[in-house]
Amino acid sequence: MSDHEDLPQKPLLIYDGDCDFCRRWIASWNRLKDRSIRHAPYQEVADQFPEISQVEFKSSVHLIDEFGQRFSGAEAVFRLLLKTRYRWLYWAYEKVPGFSTVSEFVYGFVARRRSLFSFITRLLLSSGSKESTYYLTGPIFLLALAICYLTAFLSLAVQIEGLVGEQGILPAQSFLDRVEQKFGSPPLWKLPTVFWLGASDKALRLVCYAGAMLALLVPFAVATPWVLFCLWFLYLSCFKIGGVFLGFQWDILLLEAGFLALFFSPWTLLPGRARQVQPPTPVLWLYRWLLFRLMFSSGIVKLKSGDTAWHDLTALQFHFETQPLPSWAGWYAHQLPDWTLSAMVAGVFFVQLVVPLFIFVSRRARFLVFIIFVGFQTLIAVTGNYGFFNLLTVALCLLLLDDSQLKSLMPDSIKRLVSYSAIVQTPESKFQKISVQILTPVILFLTITMLVFQFGDRTKVPDFIKKAFGHMQSFQLVGNYGLFAVMTTTRPEIIIEGSADGKTWRAYSFHWKPGPLDRAPRFVAPHQPRLDWQMWFAALGNYKSNPWILNFMTQLLKGTKQVNGLLEGNPFSNEPPKYIRAVLYRYHFTDWKDKEQTGNWWKRKRLSLYVPSMKLRTRS
User: Fold this and answer.
1) Domain chopping of the chain, boundaries
2) What's the pTM?
3) How far apart are CA 597 and CA 327, in angstroms?
4) pLDDT tens, 55-95?
5) Fewer CB within 10 Å, N or C, the chain?
6) Pair type for strands 70-72 and 506-507
7) Regarding beta strands 491-499 and 579-589, do their DSSP bridges make them parallel or antiparallel, or are they unpaired?
8) Which ranges in 384-459 belong to alpha helices (H)?
9) Going by C-beta distance under 8 Å and a sequence separation of 6 or more, which residues neighbour residue 309?
């Protein structure tokens, strides 16, 4: 900036006075910014700053500080917030790699479309100056998170022995032994898990039921941060030894949400004070950032994949039939007219690419985002079975609402039970405040690095950043999200068959995946039958790329009780089969006419042998 005879005595924010969008946001910022900062339209003060062109004035806001330095765009906005509770944004702008680039891109995107965003602002911008509180929303979110943990641990408890137990499909102890043999000693930093102490069937069950019991303590606010830490670490322990059976995006999402909860929850040891603590604002926004990444990334991966089913809006003509575990409602959705299904695909893109942007607009906008997201998750849950994913996503959506908005959705009887009118805010502990200050940049660093790896050129990321990211990601602190990037357009299905003589074959029956043609698809969520799910993935490839399926079939030949317990029916309950094979079929939903004539929900065509006939080796 050139010298001026009269530099502003106070920092001066200059904006476009002809822009309705700018005027509205200036009025909104007046409630947040330091009163020592003045603001004025460029039409009144442009002659004082001849080095700034009219094009520059129209394209972005400009902040002139008390020393005459000029800042524009997103940087000016973040400096404007330095004296508010959002000051951490400017720190992130300066220190977190990639944050400034993303911020300026978003600012420029909005600035070039101010008429549109002005209209949106008039619809959504909150009125009133009352600051939002989260004395009620915070504890209810923690309750919902505890329910997710409870569901996840109990669901895993009833199948973990068959999956990774001593006689399971992928024994955890054998895996740990191989890792220890490779590194010479238990590599806790690379593979953090409590099962280094032992991975017997008893230990596996103990961890699952201990997790379920700890989840029951969360609503009572008993040593909440310690309970949440134990929940997170126990689930991380299961995740690390679960192999292909615990690699789902909702497992990763639960770990990321659970880790943030350590800093979000009130740091109290005694019960009864949970609603008296306002959750830390940075962690609240990290949760919203997590929800944004979950939804927005799921939309972006569909566009970047180049899959024609998404680009020509035909994806839902296949999805309900080819998803891992459809429900009977999915059968009815599949019968909808093609134009309806195409309109629904357009709706998916709107929900995943447009709606998430409004998380960062205003409290009124976030209320609408909450309604849309919850409705979207409900439709997914009705037509398919995705474990506890929908429940966990709705839990994250709760943090879009403040106390007054949440209470507006409650029946009067519930409102009386959760009344908080007499609550007095309890300040954060100093240790918690420092911890949050450390956590925020770490999570921003990890998430931005993850997004660069996912959507950018990872070769341009410095090696030291890759190394630091790799060390921290051993603890699954952030996730890589993006569901159904490529739509499967056919449904191959594996049927396991056994035989006593190699001539007569009888099929094993699974609880939830398609098998008998006349059996209606079932509802099973929030429980996740992980073997049934993994059979869907295996059918998309071959047994060489899914070697676990040979282990599975070998255990069936042995008649292993724990593995047979994962199935609905064992046609060889008296004596294990001598031979076993896997046959590949192509399944399709029937249509209205076929169903009326045959009563079947499915029809199928045999394709080939997936695994040729095999038997146990006999010892000489």
Assistant:
1) 12-124, 137-475, 491-614
2) 0.81
3) 21
4) 888 888 888 887 778 888 888 888 877 777 667 777 777 87
5) C
6) unpaired
7) antiparallel
8) 389-397, 403-408, 412-417, 430-455
9) 315, 317, 318, 486, 487, 489
